[in-house]
Amino acid sequence: MPPILSVRAVAKTYKNGFTALRAVDLAIEKGEIFALLGPNGAGKTTLISIVCGTVTMTSGQVLVDGHDIARDYRAARSRIGLVPQEIALDIFATVWNTVSFSRGLFGKRPNPAYIESLLRDLSLWDKRNSRVIELSGGMKRRVMIAKALSHEPDILFLDEPTAGVDVGLRRDMWTLVRKLRDKGVTVILTTHYIEEAEEMADRVGVIDDGRLLLVEETTHLMRKLGKRRLTLALQHPMEAIPPELAGWSLELEADGQHLVYSFDANAEDTGIPTLLRRLGEKGIDFKDLDTSRSSLEDIFVSLVERAA
Amino acid sequence: MSGPFLNGAGMWAIYRTEMARMRRTIWQSVATPVITTVLYFIVFGGAIGSRIQHVGGVGYGAFIVPGLIMLTLLTQSISNASIGIYFPKFTKTIFEILSAPLSFTEAVFAYVGAAATKSILLALIILATATFFVPVRILHPGWMVAFLLLTAIAFSLFGFIVGIWAENFEQLAIIPALVVTPLTFLGGAFYSIDMLPQPWQTINLLNPVVYLISGFRWSFYGTGDIGVGTSLAFTAAFMAICVALLWWIFRTGYRLKP
Ligand SMILES: Nc1ncnc2c1ncn2[C@@H]1O[C@H](COP(=O)(O)OP(=O)(O)O)[C@@H](O)[C@H]1O
Ligand SMILES: [Mg+2]
């Protein structure tokens, strides 16, 4: 099956001369949940804005379900729903009117029954006659989602959907995303939280500095990148790692006060119990221990190193 | 290729929303021009007019009616259309218009259509108000409607451009204040331009508003400073310039898309 979204060598240099995207290639399959993962300023918003038609590309080509977004923009855009990073609403309009407006704007005939079910799904039904100005921030975000879904798009873009969002909305949003996927809707979201990508996405694309560094199935990526660090705060600082511990990938940090063990969290045998036993035998005492996941930064560093 | 269909529903959605936005401010929209017009009648028509008597065979009060209607039509067309497009830019809701399967032309038609509708409605209200003060005749109603439509559309197009150009509220207000009001006052709303001293009379021939008011007045009373053909040609030329500018905006994405 041809991809529902195909991005070919898309580059973007803004008018001030800043290059936000460098020849990005990406193919998204129909019905998948795809996470675009990258730090702030990586180019995530730029990429989805180009696909949605709100930013012009400098060069490249984008096909949505086979339709070129430049030549055949009507067909391309009518398949897309976009929830941008920031809330932007006509605050004087009522919830019902602004959601119906979006449906009309995308060329669809009115369908009150569909809008009703949409508003119910997003817990907005009771607020349908309220003006947007009367709603809380979370409710406004729900309205943004309802507007994006009002014309029954095949592809939904969610730009940083959980940034500054409360737990309830986050949960509802993921329920909704799964429901959409079950209906065959493709969902593309951006995030700078690795946990979010892991939790939601079938595949993850890692983007940094305008470059798509890799695209992987989430489970593969997590296996690859699922390194954790066990940090032992030692009673007595160490000068060097004793040869008896050479079997573990250990490092000394904080002037020898911390012994750090990097291990594969997904492995059957993490090697931790034997390490701790060996430390006991050697009389190496520690006062505290802590485990942490490799941060997004660590991951980027390792990816960039690998790419080089 | 712009695709297989015309997005009528999309245009209608914008048009309706724009009209609804105008309804929300109906009292300001109607009250301001009506009060202003009544004041003009009292001051110009009553106080000054009693000394002027007749201009080109028409009573002074009746003479200023077409000019006053044009004044409202111009300022309202520009302000409605410029706010119509500036507001979504300001609230950032324009992303939705830009991401919709709607051509630029369709968006312009919807916004400009709504702005022109409202300014024409107001112009008709002013006309109705005027009939309370002075006897108004309309010799060429067909031409009157044509001038009304053409002017409302041309200046709504112009307002749309102003709204795209403006980056803040000051810039939005400056064009009507700095350009339109002076041109209208110099344009013969309250006098026949041959009453102006030279060289202003000649300089004023570069003022597009002169042609609009003259043509419009001709449709009422059959007399004008300038031939009706020239008036029409000038209005059409102004419209063509606006359309060309909009075409350029569309090609370059000027101030709409980064
Ligand atoms: N309109 C613009 N003009 C100039 N630079 C921009 C513009 N929009 C974004 N950028 C820059 O492009 C880079 C990528 O931005 P963005 O796509 O928003 O990143 P992300 O969404 O991944 O945080 C950033 O460095 C940002 O400052
Ligand atoms: Mg972003």
UniProtKB/TrEMBL annotation, chain A:
A single GO molecular function term of this UniProt record: ATP binding
SUPFAM superfamilies hit by this protein: P-loop containing nucleoside triphosphate hydrolases
Alphabetized UniProt keyword annotations: ATP-binding, Nucleotide-binding, Transport
UniProt keyword Nucleotide-binding, yes or no: yes
Domain ABC transporter: 5-234
One Pfam family matching this protein: ABC_tran
Source superkingdom: Bacteria
PANTHER family according to UniProt: ABC TRANSPORTER ATP-BINDING PROTEIN
Name this protein carries in UniProt: ABC transporter ATP-binding protein
Gene source species: Acidiphilium iwatense
TrEMBL record, chain B:
Assigned keywords, A-Z: Cell membrane, Membrane, Transmembrane, Transmembrane helix, Transport
Main location: membrane
Highest taxon listed in the record's lineage: Bacteria
Sequence ranges assigned to domain ABC transmembrane type-2 in this UniProt record: 24-253
InterPro entries for this protein: ABC-2_transport_permease (IPR052522), ABC2_TM (IPR013525), ABC2_TM_bact-type (IPR047817), ABC_2_transport (IPR000412)
Transmembrane segments: 26-48, 54-74, 94-114, 120-139, 146-166, 172-191, 226-250
Leader peptide range in chain numbering: none
Localization of this protein: Cell inner membrane; Membrane
The keyword Cell membrane belongs to this UniProt entry's keyword annotation: yes
Bilayer disposition of the protein: Multi-pass membrane protein
Family: Belongs to the ABC-2 integral membrane protein family.
Protein name per UniProt: Transport permease protein
Organism: Acidiphilium iwatense
